[in-house]
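Note to self: user wants both folds in one dump. Writing first protein now.
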Amino acid sequence: MSATRTATAHWEGDLFTGSGQVTLESSGKGTFDVSWPARTEEPGGKTSPEELLAAAHSACYNMAFSNILNKAGTPPTTLDTTAAVTFVPGTGITEIKLSTVGSVPGISAEDFQARAEEAKDGCPVSQALKSVPSITIEARLAD
């Protein structure tokens, strides 16, 4: 079974002085303002393609990691992941850094790190982003 999700974007004006909105159509969860300054300077209450990509990547990663841990016999209690997407004007997305903290009973730090790497490589969003020069993962167990 496949699933298709949609979002739409509307833009008015040129790149530097224009602005737009992105709408999460499938879920109906909202419409968010976007602009070039929000992408390259301070957000100012607006989002950017990179922030939306970070949200998608961190959510997908947690799902993949949870599944890998469960299949290994060490299901997580919690996983908290941040995705930091770096955008360089004129170059594009140059790095995605995933940082995850997990509460996983019965797992060693070494096994946690190995499963974290496996999830990074197997996550469908990671797969879709293979052209990004650097996708890294920082993983640690919660105290």
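First done. Writing the second protein, which came from a different request thread.
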Amino acid sequence: MNSSEPSRPLPKVGIQIIAKAPLAGLAKTRLIPALGAYGAASLAKKMLTKILQDCASLLIDTPTEYRFSVNLWMTPSAQSPAWRTVDIPDGIGLCEQRGDDLGERMGNAAVQGLVNTDAVIIIGSDCPEINASVLRWAAAALHEHDACMVPCADGGYALIGMRSYESRLFTNIPWSTDKVAELTRRRLLECGMSYIECTAVHDIDESADLQYLPPEWPESTSEQSPV
């Protein structure tokens, strides 16, 4: 029998999900005029459950080029009763968000995620267009580039991935404005990081965004009165 070379370990990509508990009055508050407080929270839970399931599928169906880990960065903490209604799949790590603003929380997730991985992908939970296929695209992109991004039609982004941490990507960014993606592109260039982008997607923040939900979801054509 011919001897074979030892197999090399697969590159490891850490998916970091930044999420709020889907509580009425806390989650997706800008959707309350269209769906009511409980309807908005229900939709937040549905979107969170979808991305958790998509990520969990990657832990089982791993491509030959790399392997995934997944962490859910939570606010409030995992011990809060607010999370009792959320079905979190096995294999997903639970972490408490840390930081005073979104940039600090994302930066901390990136730093911690890179401790045991070759690259990280940071996502939220409010964009159903981010799915397992998009996450595989991001992982593959990070084989060839220092960073990757999936921009949003509103000027933000729904996914950012990187092979190394650069604080400038998360510092003094005007979050929740139409300047986020463009400023992040400039920062990537300033940091000397090569990057690639995917087609723009739509996150679900306001009533007008409900049209971008999967058509089989009743909220996509909801005419409910606020409750």
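Dump finished. Worth passing along: Residues 62 and 123 are 19 Å apart (CA to CA).
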